[in-house]
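Entry:
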Amino acid sequence: MPLVLATDDTGGPEIFASLQGEGPSAGMPVAFMRLSRCNLACVWCDTAYTWHFEGDNRPHRDGVTYERRANQVTLDEAEVAQRIAALGQGRLVVTGGEPLLQAPSLARMLALLPDITVEIETNGTTAAPPSLDRRIAQFNVSPKLSHSGNPADLALLPERLDAYAADPRAWFKFVIAAPEDVAKVRELQQHHAVPAERIFLMPEGTDSATLRTREQWLAPLCLEHGYRMSDRLHIHLYGDTRGT
């Protein structure tokens, strides 16, 4: 099957070169590919155009729904691979949405790019099948806490968190909206034996002022618990825009 991608502001597929803005690879030049569709619904999601389509009544804080046809594009796997190769980057970040929902097509596409290093952004609720897993160098796992609006029985699956905690390729990136969110991170870390050095705390926010304000109280909490802090470099550089 072909891949279903999100669209950029021109209506074309959201495949572009930029600097990785978050997590362990922050600042690295990469190619990005954003896939459409998600199995969760975060109320603060900054890419709601990948899932909050007309007729979807799940809540989102801005109340906007998107016309599916204008925000999705379907491409043959070979064409996707060609577009990524043309960007000339040695590293690919596959994001979404939830990319692992399209794992079989994604695995076939990546087989056409055998020399590229691949990192996957995932919400941590599903697993990559072997055909895809062997092509992944890094998982950026972002489990969704209660402030996301997702119930824990959908967003925090113990067997999946255990598996990612045991995988040295997996880094955990928690979106933090308030200081009390860190207590839940501590609980999850201890329950699933996640090494502290593989945990990033990242402030929730889609503008520089909000990020900077939250980083002021987040930094000491990272120091206290031995976690790393992730900024959102792309927000400072480009704002909350598609294709960046």
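The mean pLDDT is 97.
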